[in-house]
DNA sequence: CGGTTTTCTTTACGCGCGTAAATTTTATGT
DNA sequence: ACATAAAATTTACGCGCGTAAAGAAAACCG
C-alpha cells in the first residue's frame, strides 16, 4: 500500500495508467474490460486502495443497483430479522440494499421515502406502518419507484404484495387449540396498528363458527408499539375481571402473548398444557423471542425464508423488466408447538 | 399542488422567481435570507413540493450535517433501542443521522465504514463489534472522520469513549446478590464477542474476593450472536452437571440470562426469590425484554438516556470544534429489582 | 435625498462520477 | 501481412447541487 492517497477516479486512473472511462467501466463490471487491463487496474488497486464514491456513482446512472428496504419498526426483532434476510438476498443478487426504519412514526415513514428517492433506487421493499400510513404519499412514491409491499398489505399498492396468510394462520392455530382442549378466547388490541390484526380476528370468528363454539374476543386498550406492555396491562385487567370464558387464549400476535405471559406469572397463574396448568396461551408470528419465553410460546410462525425470498425475487424480477399485474401472495405459516399451549 | 413536477433546484428557482444560489442558501438555513424572499420561496414550496437531493447537496459541501450511527447488530433490541435514542438526539440537534448495522460481521463492519465515507459525515457514533473488529481499518477511519466510540471500548480510538461502567455493574449487582442470599456463580460465554464481558468477569472475581467468597465462573461454549440459545444450551449442560455451587447465578448479560431462564423452565427448576424457588438468576444490561421474562429478570440496567446523551453531546461538541483529549466516560448502571433474584 | 449596508442576481467553476461519440490502439482471423 | 473486429483513449457534456466573486437591486439611516 502506497502513501499517496487517491481521492477520486481521475487520480486513480492516472496511477493505474488506464483512462478514466475505462476504469469506470471496470467498476461497473470487471469483466467488461480486456483481461490485461483488468490486471493492471487490479494491481493498482492493491497498491493504492481506492473505492469509487457510491453516491457520485448513482448520481448520473440510468439504472442503479440500489434497493431500499423500509420497515415500520426496527426495534421489533421480527422486522429486524426479516430485514436482515431481505438485505442478504439483495446482496446475493448483486444489489446494494439500504435499510430504513419509520420507527413507528408515519411522518418519519414519508420522510424516509423522500430520502430514498435521492438514492435513485432500482426498487424498494417496503413494509408499511399500516393503518397510520399516509396513503396518498405512499401511492405517489409507488408511482415513481418500483415498490414491492410486504408484511402488511395496502390493497393494489405498488408492484405486488407478499406476506403471510393471516386467515390461514389463525384458522390453523385455532383448529389446533380446539382439537386439543377448550376453544380459545381471542386476545387483541382494540385499535391495532397493523391491518393483519383484523384478518386474524375475522379468521378466529370464522373458525369458531365452523367448530360450533361461541367466540369470545377480548379487545384491550393501548396505543403505539409497546405491545408487550399493552399485553401485560390488558392481561392483568382481563384476568382480574375474569373475562376469559375458557382456559385457552389465542393472542393476536406474539408480542401481546409475551406480555400476557408476564401478567399470568405476576398473578401466579400457571400457563401450559400440563394437568397442573390453569390456562393455555398461544401467539401468532413466530417472533424470534417466542422460543425463550417461560413457558416457550406455542405459535404459528411466519415462513420468514419463503416470504423474504418471494418478496426479493418478485422485486428483482420486476426490476429486470418482468413486470406482472398486481397480485397478492400470502404464504402459509407453520405451527410451532411448544409448552404454552 | 400544481401538476408540473420540479426535478431540480434550477427548475424550482425558476418557478419561485428566486435565483438558484439564493434558494440554495434558503435550504441551508431559511433564516439566512430576507423575510420577503423566504415567503416567496415557501409559497412556491407549498405549490410545487420540491426537495433538494440530499446526496447532491453533500457532494460539494465543506461541512455536512450528516451523522453516521453504526451498531454491531440491529437484531438485538438493545442496540436498536440505543440507536433510536441516538438518532433522535442527532435530529433534535439539527443533524441527519443514518443508521447502519454490521450484522455481527467484521467484514460488513468495514464495508459499512467505507460507504459511510462517501456520505462525508460530520461525525460518526460507533459501537464496534469488539473482539472481531478489524482494528487497523477502524483506526484508519477514525483518523479521517471524527468518530466517537460507544458501548464497547477500543482503547484510545477515536475522539473518546462513552459507555457503561461494567465494573460498577457487576460489583453493584454482586453486592446485592451477596447481601440477599447465597453468593452468585458467574455464567458467561467462554469466548465473548464483546470486551465488556471480560470486565464483568473480573469485577465479579473482585467482588467475591471482597466478600470473602469462593468465586465460581461457568464459561460455556458458543460462537456468534445467538446469545439466548447459547445461554439455553449452556444452561442445560451446567444444570445437568450440577456445576452451580450456589443457588444464585449472575449472568454476564441479559440475553444469556433469558436463555438460562428457559433452560431452568425446561428442567422444571423454579426461579425466583420466593421460599419455593430453587435458584435465583440475575442478568446485566437492562435489556428491553428483561421486563417480560417469567419471572421478570432482576438486572442492572444501562442508563440508556445518559449514555446516549453523553455520546451525542460529545460528538456534536467535537464537530463544533470543542475537541478535547481522548477520554473514556463510563456511566453507572441502575439496579432493577424484579422477581428473578 | 444621497450614501451605506444588506441582500440578490449573474456568472462561473467545482464535486466525483456516468456516458456518449469520435478516434486511435490493440487483438483476431485467414 | 492485411483487413476486420474489439477494446481503449480522448474529448466533452451531464447529474444536482455548493460556493465564490462581482455587480445590481433593495433596504436602511440620518
TrEMBL record, chains A, B:
Q: What GO terms are given for molecular function?
A: DNA-binding transcription factor activity; transcription cis-regulatory region binding
**InterPro entries for this protein:** HTH_LacI, LacI/GalR-like_sensor, Lambda_DNA-bd_dom_sf, Peripla_BP_I
What Pfam families does UniProt report for this protein, alphabetically?
LacI, Peripla_BP_3
Xref: SMART domains:
HTH_LACI
| Keyword set, alphabetical order | DNA-binding, Transcription, Transcription regulation
Start and end of every HTH lacI-type domain? 7-61
Q: Can you tell me which residues the record assigns to a coiled coil? A: none
Name of this protein? LacI family transcriptional regulator
Amino acid at each position: 500500500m502506497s502513501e499517496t492517497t487517491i481521492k477520486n477516479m481521475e487520480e486513480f486512473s492516472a496511477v493505474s495508467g488506464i483512462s478514466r472511462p475505462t476504469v469506470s467501466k471496470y467498476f461497473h463490471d470487471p469483466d467488461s474490460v480486456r483481461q490485461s487491463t483488468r490486471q493492471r487496474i487490479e494491481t493498482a488497486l492493491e497498491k493504492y486502495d481506492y473505492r469509487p464514491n457510491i453516491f457520485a456513482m448513482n448520481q448520473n446512472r440510468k439504472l442503479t443497483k440500489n434497493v431500499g428496504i423500509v420497515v415500520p419498526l426496527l426495534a421489533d426483532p421480527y422486522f429486524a430479522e426479516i430485514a436482515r434476510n431481505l438485505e442478504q438476498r439483495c446482496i446475493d443478487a448483486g444489489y446494494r440494499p439500504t435499510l430504513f426504519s419509520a420507527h413507528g412514526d408515519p411522518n418519519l415513514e414519508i420522510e424516509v421515502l423522500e430520502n430514498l428517492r435521492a438514492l435513485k433506487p432500482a426498487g424498494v421493499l417496503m413494509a408499511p406502518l399500516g393503518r397510520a400510513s399516509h396513503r396518498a404519499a405512499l401511492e405517489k412514491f409507488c408511482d415513481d419507484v418500483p415498490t414491492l409491499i410486504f408484511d402488511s398489505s395496502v390493497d393494489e399498492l405498488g408492484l405486488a404484495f407478499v406476506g403471510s396468510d393471516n386467515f390461514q394462520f389463525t384458522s390453523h392455530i385455532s383448529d389446533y387449540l380446539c382439537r386439543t382442549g377448550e376453544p380459545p378466547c381471542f386476545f387483541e388490541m382494540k385499535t391495532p396498528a397493523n391491518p393483519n390484526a383484523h384478518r386474524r380476528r375475522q379468521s378466529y370468528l370464522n373458525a369458531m363458527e365452523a367448530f360450533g363454539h361461541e367466540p369470545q374476543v377480548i379487545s384491550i386498550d393501548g396505543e403505539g408499539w409497546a405491545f408487550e406492555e399493552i399485553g401485560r396491562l390488558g392481561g392483568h385487567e382481563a384476568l382480574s375481571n375474569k373475562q376469559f370464558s375458557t382456559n385457552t387464549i389465542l393472542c393476536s400476535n406474539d408480542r401481546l402473548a409475551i406480555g400476557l405471559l408476564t401478567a399470568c406469572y405476576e398473578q401466579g397463574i400457571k400457563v401450559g398444557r400440563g394437568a397442573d396448568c390453569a390456562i393455555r396461551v398461544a401467539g401468532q408470528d413466530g417472533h424470534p423471542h417466542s422460543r425463550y419465553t417461560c413457558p416457550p410460546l406455542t405459535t404459528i410462525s411466519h415462513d420468514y425464508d419463503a416470504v423474504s425470498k418471494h418478496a426479493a425475487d418478485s422485486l428483482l424480477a420486476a426490476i429486470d423488466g418482468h413486470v406482472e399485474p398486481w397480485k397478492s401472495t400470502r404464504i402459509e405459516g407453520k405451527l410451532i408447538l411448544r409448552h404454552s399451549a
